[in-house]
From TrEMBL:
<dbReference type="InterPro" id="IPR023603">
    <property type="entry name" value="Low_specificity_L-TA-like"/>
</dbReference>
<dbReference type="InterPro" id="IPR001597">
    <property type="entry name" value="ArAA_b-elim_lyase/Thr_aldolase"/>
</dbReference>
<dbReference type="GO" id="GO:0004793">
    <property type="term" value="F:threonine aldolase activity"/>
</dbReference>
<protein>
    <recommendedName>
        <fullName>low-specificity L-threonine aldolase</fullName>
        <ecNumber>4.1.2.48</ecNumber>
    </recommendedName>
</protein>
<feature type="coiled-coil region">
    <location>
        <begin position="253"/>
        <end position="280"/>
    </location>
</feature>
<comment type="pathway">
    <text>Amino-acid degradation; L-threonine degradation via aldolase pathway; acetaldehyde and glycine from L-threonine: step 1/1.</text>
</comment>
<comment type="similarity">
    <text>Belongs to the threonine aldolase family.</text>
</comment>
<feature type="modified residue" description="N6-(pyridoxal phosphate)lysine">
    <location>
        <position position="211"/>
    </location>
</feature>
<dbReference type="InterPro" id="IPR015424">
    <property type="entry name" value="PyrdxlP-dep_Trfase"/>
</dbReference>
<dbReference type="InterPro" id="IPR015422">
    <property type="entry name" value="PyrdxlP-dep_Trfase_small"/>
</dbReference>
<feature type="domain" description="Aromatic amino acid beta-eliminating lyase/threonine aldolase">
    <location>
        <begin position="11"/>
        <end position="298"/>
    </location>
</feature>
<keyword id="KW-0175">Coiled coil</keyword>
<dbReference type="Pfam" id="PF01212">
    <property type="entry name" value="Beta_elim_lyase"/>
</dbReference>
<dbReference type="InterPro" id="IPR015421">
    <property type="entry name" value="PyrdxlP-dep_Trfase_major"/>
</dbReference>
<comment type="function">
    <text>Threonine aldolase involved in threonine degradation to glycine. May play a role in the removal of L-allo-threonine.</text>
</comment>
<dbReference type="GO" id="GO:0006567">
    <property type="term" value="P:L-threonine catabolic process"/>
</dbReference>
<keyword id="KW-0663">Pyridoxal phosphate</keyword>
Amino acid sequence: MVTLTTVRTVDLRSDTVTKPTESMRSAMANAEVDDDVLGNDPTALRLEKEVAEMAGKEAAMFVPSGTMGNLISVLVHCDERGSEVILGDDSHIHIYENGGVSSLGGVHPRTVKNEEDGTMEIGSIEAAVRSPKGDLHYPVTKLICLENTQANCGGRCLPVEYIDKVGELAKKHGLMLHIDGARIFNASIALGVPVKRIVQAADSVSICLSKGIGAPVGSVIVGSKKFITKARWLRKTLGGGMRQIGVLCAAALVALHENVAKLEDDHKKAKILAEGLNRIERLRVNVTAVETNIIYVDIPEDPKFGAEDACKSLEDVGVLVIPQATFRIRIVLHHQISDVDVEYVLSCFEKMF
């Protein structure tokens, strides 16, 4: 392999790696705070009000992480142990959240295949529904979960029309619909549709603040007032009740106000990088699938040099990425990646492959 010299560090492991901006740090230092467990932190209340309005829902609640947000949402809807949630086989909740819905909530996951575009086939979802009037050998379905954008499918956006159809299906069978909206702002920008319209059919949504828009910590879950009341009890049970969280919420408010608009630029850079990587003869990228800020790069299937080896070699020259599979690398753009960074990453891949 060609030996390269480190010139700069470009961290493309995730959009969670961003550092707080100066305006975020200033807002955190000057945040008005109180005890949020007692419901009195004014900055938290302001953040929750703004996110609820953006999502078109009655109420909202800050949580330390997206994993906790999804777990609480599933447990509110599946309030009987042994009930069932239908979700994608390649979804974040199913793969990357430690099986919490099962281990902590006693909820049974019933997976449906995620198609390449991130959707689950409507007929397959309906076929997976198990009614309380059905065979007593089976758990009873109570919830359907979608993910938008769908990360493992390359940050693909679920169209509004599709979500509406899933919502109609849920109502038909008396089920609830939760959306893991970790990157819902990316979907909104890419689709050109307001968040509240995208999630209109959902009963609850988990919205990450530390991914696309670059806040240092946290997520917000939204839903009806009744849903959020139950969610607050569960947050306390799971150890997520914190005190002066205004210092965190202040940074999140800055992210909402300053960084949502920057996502369009992240998407453009991702497309430019994807196109450049795909022009390298030994690499393959499905450029059409790059709708937001995530890129998957397929490398040659050389048993002596897989994705982990490639990631280590790239790290030696300051490019940080992660292996997604034996011969696949994941790249995630964010607002702290410049045009020069993109050019540097391309040059490193070109010299390596």
